[in-house]
Amino acid sequence: MSGLEDIRARVAAAAAEAGRDPGEITLVAVSKVQPLARVEAVLEAGQRVFGENRVQEAAEKWPGFRERFPDVVLHLIGPLQTNKARQAVELFDVIESVDRPKLARRLAELFEETGRRLPCYIQVNTGEEPQKAGVLPADTDAFVAECRDLGLPLAGLMCIPPVDEEPALHFALLARLAERNGLTGLSMGMSADFERAIAQGATVVRVGSAIFGERGKT
Ligand SMILES: *Cc1c(COP(=O)(O)O)cnc(C)c1O
Q: Which residues belong to any copy of the Alanine racemase N-terminal domain (predicted)?
């Protein structure tokens, strides 16, 4: 699987360039919308950490793959409605998109009830875009505190920078917000900018099209 090998090599090179241990960077292969055969090829090439942005799509795709590849780790990287939270807690291993108090409270209840306590990332809307999910930077400290009060296992912060802006400014903002809240996980960087994100401290990069090819083209 040449796309995967190439991206792994680039992650390692970006880590070395930044004087970081590549082992502290998790590559999430974003498999949304990709044909099953492509996802299977990436699984067979040894990749185990995947990201999906929709609960329904993950429910159709992943239970079958998990039977064959039980050590798969699945990240939810898209918006989560509270009425799908239970299904998400059953299907996923990491929730990267905690973005509002109502969802945080629901997840805390479900973790308590099911005993599945999934590592969570708070999504920050660093570009303050009205159409995008995430807490505003100014509200992040209070929301982190609220999630901690609820007992959510917080792994870090996540962002999706605006498409038309220099991502470095957004990565730097996310890193500052995480640091001042004592959080070490930084999920940032996609196909177009994961190397820059690694230079700025990303511990999770979410790469789709650069591994699988463009979505919607087979
Ligand atoms: C689709 C998606 C990605 C991957 O995007 P690529 O540009 O294909 O690498 C990363 N993060 C989120 C939240 C996404 O929805």
A: 6-214
- For 197, residues 6+ apart whose C-beta sits below 8 A from its C-beta are 167, 171, 186, 188, 189, 205
Residue 203 CA: distances (Å) to CA of 58, 115, 136, 206: 23, 26, 21, 10
Residue range 62-85, pLDDT digits in tens: 999 999 999 999 999 999 999 999
Q: Which residue out of 11, 28, 77, 214 has the highest number of ligand 1 atoms within 8 Å of its CB and is therefore the one to mutate?
A: 77
Distance from residue 205's CA to the centre of ligand 1 (Å): 9
What are the tens digits of pLDDT across the range 33-61?
A: 999 999 999 999 999 999 999 999 999 99
CB-CB contact of 42 with 29 (8 Å):
yes
Contact 32, 215 (CB under 8 A): yes
What is the pTM for the complete model shown?
Answer: 0.97
Question: What residues does ligand 1 touch, defined as CB less than 6 Å away?
Answer: 30, 32, 53, 77-78, 160, 190-191, 206-210
